[in-house]
Write a structure and sequence with these properties.
Elements lengths: L1 H10 L3 E2 L12 E8 L2 E6 L2 E5 L17 E6 L8 E5 L5 E5 L6 E2 L1
Parallel strand pairs: 2-7
Antiparallel strand pairs: 1-7, 2-3, 2-5, 3-4, 5-6, 7-8
């Protein structure tokens, strides 16, 4: 779940990945963006939310299927790391980001 991933990162004072990164596992990954008031925004406790200025959505995305897809995931390399809107209650891999080069994988 997105909330779990974000909380797990916060427990060690790091944050969900803010931008796209290389994925070699073939998994979809949570990344640090959500739809808030019909606008996609990068979310980080380190910064105030701000609107995403460029997009890298997968074809026909975001589609807000069933009106409940408000969290952003990144597809694996096979889909060129494109973004998708997903239900926030799904369990996915995630990457925490720090202000240093130390990343934590979940």
């Amino acid at each position: 779940m997105y909330v779990y991933a974000n909380s797990a990162c916060g427990k060690v004072t790091v944050y969900l990945l803010f931008m796209t990164v290389l994925d070699i596992s073939g998994n979809n990954w949570w990344i640090g963006a959500k739809e808030i008031n019909n606008q996609w925004q990068w979310i980080s406790p380190q910064y105030p939310p701000y609107a995403i200025s460029h997009t890298y959505w997968y074809q026909n995305e975001p589609n807000n299927e069933q009106g409940i897809e408000d969290c952003m995931e990144m597809y694996p390399m096979a889909h060129r790391f494109r973004w998708n809107d997903a239900r926030c209650d799904q369990t996915k891999a995630y990457i925490c980001e720090t202000s240093f080069s130390d990343d934590i994988f979940g």
